[in-house]
Amino acid sequence: MRLLAAFLGVFFITFSAISLYSYAEEQHLTNLPGYVDFDQLPGAGDEPTIVINLDKSLLTLLSAFDRNDPATSEALKNLESVRVQAFETWLADDEAEAQMASVQQSLEAASWNQIVRARDRDGKADIYLKQNGEGIQGVFVVAVDDGDVVFVNVLGDINPEEIAGIVKRVNVDVDLPL
Fold it and tell me: What is the pTM of this model?
C-alpha cells in the first residue's frame, strides 16, 4: 500500500510539473510575433482532427539527429515551435473561398504578408510570412481541400538563406503551373 501511495504521489507531482511546463510554454509562444491563434481563425471547427506540436526542446533534439547537414540542424535550432492543426469543415467551394478571404483579412490586419496564393478545382492554399526587416519571425500556411482545413504555424528566427539552401540540398521540385 505504501508503494502504491508513493507511486501515485510521484505520478501526481510529475503530471503537475508537465502541466505547468506546457502552460508556460504555450504562454511563451503566444507572445512571439509569429504566433497565430488557430482558435481565432474562421474555419476552425469544434475539435481538431489532427494536432501536432513540436516545441523548442523537441526541435533541438531533432536537430541533433542529422550531423551531416549542419545548415538544417542550425535552422531547426532557431525555431521555437511548429504547430499543425486540421479540422473538418465540410464547406462548399464558395464558402471555402470566403473562409480563405476572412483568414487573409485577419492576418493582414496583424501585419502578415501573403507570399503564395494557390487555387485549383481540388483545393486552395495560402502562405504568409511575418517579417522583421531581413528576417522572418513566422510562417503560416492555410490549406482547404475536400472539406478539411489545415493550419500550420512555424515560429522562430527563420533565415531565408538557410531555408533556400535546405530546399536546394534535398532537391525539392517546385513545379508550379504558370
Answer: 0.74
**Helix/strand/coil percent split, the chain, to 5:** 40, 30, 25
Strands annotated E in the chain: 50-55, 79-88, 113-119, 123-132, 135-145, 148-158
Q: From the first residue on, what is the mean pLDDT of each consecutive set of 10 residues in the chain (178 residues)?
A: 50 42 57 84 72 89 77 81 84 70 85 89 86 86 82 87 65 49
DSSP state of 152: E
CB 69 within 8 A of CB 169: yes
Q: What value does the CA radius of gyration of the chain take, rounded to a whole number of Å? A: 19
Angstrom distance (rounded) from CA 54 to CA 30: 15
Q: Give the number of other CB atoms < 10 A from CB of residue 100.
A: 22
